[in-house]
Amino acid sequence: MTPTLPVAPPGARFNFAHHLIERNLARPAKPAYIDDQGTLSYGDLAGHIRRLAAALLASGVRREERVLLLMHDCSDWPVSFLGAMYAGIVPVAVNTLLTADDYAYMLQHSRAQAAIVSGALLPTLQAAMVQGGHELKTVIVSRPDAALPEGAVALDTLMEQHAPLAEPAGTSPDDPGFWLYSSGSTGRPKGTLHSHGNPYWTAELYGTPVLGLTEQDVCFSAAKLFFAYGLGNALSFPLSVGATTILMAERPTPEATFKRWRGEVGGMRPTVFFGAPTGFAGMLASPALPAKTDIALRLVSSAGEALPSELGERFTAHFGVEIIDGLGSTEMLHIFLSNRPGQVRYGTTGWPVPGYEVELRDDDGRPVPDGETGDLYIHGPSSALMYWGNREKSRETFQGAWTKSGDKYVRNADGTYTYSGRSDDMLKVSGIYVSPFEVEATLVQHPAVLECAVIGKEDEKGLTKTKAFVVVKPGHQVDEATLQAFVKERLAPYKYPRFIEFMTELPKTATGKIQRFRLRELERKA
């Protein structure tokens, strides 16, 4: 059964970049983006998009060919992403924190014909090109900080050389729009291919009706634009309603985030903030934590990993603002399961977003009853088309109209869903499934624990037991026995961590997701 869609689908001819330009024709002078160097109006955004589209076509990049985007968050990022889409060219947005080896792989895997790169990242891209032997038709540099090498051109210079492209490429909602690489929380990144229509659906089904974004909002996302979560937060959602977005090139440390919250960059305070649980924990532990009266937030969104109820409650108690926790994925582009403003159930991921249908299934594909753990499947219009060049993984994930998320969940009596962990992270202890997240959520309730991650470890008998990696808050001390007793008092006895290892930090992706596979690798080598 196809879920009922509460909004009309895009037309047979649909170009997402053109769609956003058309939506904002009436507000040319309004700030679309504020970054570390200034403001870009909606009128200038539209002009830059169309000029870059013309420049890419003139450089010999053809429709549906790929262009690599290796860029820090700044106003050049949406110009580059949407400029490529306007021309029918496919931008491949990649993580800025990877190595030359990773980029060499992505250049070859995507067969990119051009690259748009931040000046500070140009040496890394050049090393990747040499390492992989991959030639590009053009290398376009955003905000160069040194003289450019032969064959490279500054983005500003290039746009000045071309008149705006008169008409967008005649794409359809199902045509290839852009790629995102999976964040790698469970291994090698996969090139996830999305259509022109998919960001339309995420904005129309979630950004506007669930979050209630309007043109009066000022949005700020800790998650960077190259991630699915950040792309919706800082591009698809605000541009769909004419809001203003603050972009930040640097890492989203608590101090850097608070600086933007107080309006110290660009003079505007955000009304909506998009973050992740690990970031919220760091903020609440920061000595620079601002007072409620210093900020203008009306709404805070969380995704990337499940939000512990204790963390959400502490944040709300301090700021008087709800955290709207939701679940999305690179494969579904954005959030499909979410709490609602004014209807928050901390400790759960909320209800299905209207327009999406979810099912929990057992190992044989049969539905599981309420209260039992099952694999989460999603049916909705924003699902990716495939993983590029990976037929086996595509078949495993994209099963007809359904997408297998790789997450384990429990459906509660009130229709909400509670996270139980990744399918490949679930542990079977004494023959019973144990959710790593449940143990983690209990550990972080201890006043000395900043963050933690739980994996399985074989004991001397070869049996799987839980092991916790714990980061202690600055200025606090706690020992293994104390934490074990703390968990035993709150969970079934078989769930407490038999082993605890203290660390100064946990391995994470750039969005703050804990990389448990890295911890498992460390354990195997120990």
Protein model, in words:
The chain has 526 residues and is of the alpha/beta class. The protein is built from 15 helices and 27 strands. A hairpin with a 2-residue loop joins strand 1 and strand 2. Helix 2 crosses helix 3, helix 7 packs across helix 8 (228-241) and helix 10 packs across helix 11 (309-319). The chain is globular. The termini are far apart.
Largest sheet: 9 strands, mixed
The largest sheet has its strands arranged as 2-1-11-10-12-13-14-15-16
Structural class: alpha/beta
The number of distinct β-strands equals: 27
C-alpha Rg, in Å? Answer: 23 Å
> Could you tell me the strand content as a percent range?
15-25%
Question: Helix amount, in percent?
Answer: 25-40%
Tally of helical runs:
15
Q: What is the overall shape?
A: globular
Termini gap = 49 Å
Query: Which spans of ≥5 residues are poorly predicted at pLDDT below 50?
Result: none
Output mean pLDDT: 94
Furnish the topology, listing elements before pairings.
Blueprint lengths: L15 H8 L7 E5 L2 E4 H17 L7 E5 L5 H11 L3 E4 L6 H11 L3 E5 L3 H11 L5 E5 L9 E3 H6 L15 E6 L9 E5 L2 H10 L10 E4 L6 H14 L2 E3 L7 H8 L10 E4 L1 H8 L14 E4 L6 H11 L3 E6 L6 E4 L12 E2 L4 E5 L11 E7 L6 E2 L3 H7 E2 L2 E10 L5 E6 L4 E3 L2 E3 L1 H8 L5 E10 L5 E9 L7 H9 L10 E4 L13 H10 L1
Parallel strand pairs: 1-11, 3-4, 3-5, 4-8, 5-6, 6-7, 10-11, 10-12, 12-13, 13-14, 26-27
Antiparallel strand pairs: 1-2, 8-9, 9-19, 14-15, 15-16, 17-18, 18-21, 20-21, 21-22, 23-24, 25-26
Helix pairs in contact: 2-3, 4-5, 7-8, 10-11
